[in-house]
Amino acid sequence: DHLYADALRRAAARFGGQIVAEKEFKDTGTARRTDTGATQIQLQISVFTQDLPEHDVLLVADESEVFGTYVPYRTWTSRLVAGTAGLVASSWHPASEQWGGIQMQSRFLKTTGRRMLSKDMSAWTAVRAVGEATTRINGDDPKKISDYIRSDDFSVAAFKGQKLTFRKWNLQLRQPIMLGDTKSVVSTSPQEGYLHQVSELDTLGIDQPETKCVLK
Fold first, then answer.
1. How far apart are CA 130 and CA 153, in angstroms?
2. Final residue belonging to a domain, choices 85, 116, 138
3. 177-215 confidence digits (pLDDT tens)
């Protein structure tokens, strides 16, 4: 949760957002699985957010889901909730059907009996990247595959509206990020208007001039 909060602070500073206040929700060990425990948490959220200064969005950092799922629609002042609850950023969304995604979703649902999650898409993309490189070099030499994946010639299609590539400085996959609630995709980042000299996808995450990562 602390790392997620750090990422929110970094993003706010990078894109000109202003964090006007921060509060830490203390888990008192209430039995959330019981009706009484769930009700207590819900009541606490309204009071917990009562003294916040004027704001446009309330950002939640609660990957453990201790309290975050109770925040939307229960804040003292009606505001958009985002972060790990409300409007959530993810590399894939179970409701994504654009750019041929409906075909992927249908095949996955037929095979597994459930909708595709981010971790499933990450695994598929990793295998697809290796397969794509193997096909392009017409061979299975591991070093040649690795070199090709790192090259400027490599890209992979992954039902996200544009070709994906790897950042040379840390081999992180450049990819759009989906913003959605539990039912639908609301938007996809990078948002229109954010430009970059190399790739608009590098407006997301930590860019090369900012990174401390050294790939060996």
1. 14
2. 85
3. 999 998 999 999 998 888 888 888 988 888 888 888 777
Number of H helices, E strands in the chain: 5, 7
Strand blocks (E) in the chain: 57-60, 80-83, 87-90, 165-166, 173-174, 177-180, 185-189
pLDDT tens digits for 37-96? Answer: 556 777 889 999 999 999 999 999 999 888 899 999 999 999 999 999 999 999 999 999
Query: Maximum CA pair distance of the chain?
Result: 63
Q: What SS3 state is found at 129?
A: helix
One-letter-per-residue 3-state SS of 81-102? EEECCCEEEECCCCCCCHHHHH
For residue 143, the enclosing domain spans 98-203
Q: Give which of 166, 167, 191 is closest to 177, Cα–Cα.
A: 191
Please say which residue of 29, 57, 85 terminates a domain: 85
pTM of the predicted model, to two decimals?
Answer: 0.82
